[in-house]
Amino acid sequence: MADEIDLANEIAERHTSEALRAALSAATGPRRPVNATGRCRSCKEEIESERLLGDPTADLCGFCAAEAEEIAAKRRRTGR
Ligand SMILES: [Zn+2]
């Protein structure tokens, strides 16, 4: 029973993110390249749908983006 609920949730989630992606690429038009795969450029995991909703061109997941931001901040601090 629990497995069936898990499966149903998973399917629903997948459909939601697919619909979200289609709506986003339709809404943003051709000027900014939308992350069509919805996957992280770095770790290849699926990017959180909330994140893609905020920025359809996001090509890093929350984790990798935080990591990249940390590296960038470190570079800014050291001037390198
Ligand atoms: Zn990632």
Task: Summarize the model shown.
It is built from three helices and no strands.
Q: What does this protein structure show overall?
A:
By secondary structure, the protein is mainly α. The chain has one domain. Helices cover 62% and strands 0% of the residues. It is flat. The site of zinc ion has 8 residues, from helix 3.
Question: Tags for this entry?
Answer:
single chain, mainly alpha, 3 helices, flat, binds zinc ion
Supply Rg: 16 Å
β-strand number: 0
Output mean pLDDT: 88
Approximate helicity band: 55-70%
How many angstroms separate the termini?
55 Å
Q: Please state the overall shape, judged from the principal axes of the Cα atoms.
A: flat
**How much strand content do the residues show?**
under 5%
Estimate nothing, just give the exact number of structural domains.
1
Structural class: mainly alpha
Q: What is the string of SSEs from the N terminus onward?
A: HHH
Blueprint (SSEs and pairs):
Elements: H1 2-28, H2 49-54, H3 62-78
Bound molecules: zinc ion (ZN).
The site of zinc ion has 8 residues, from helix 3.
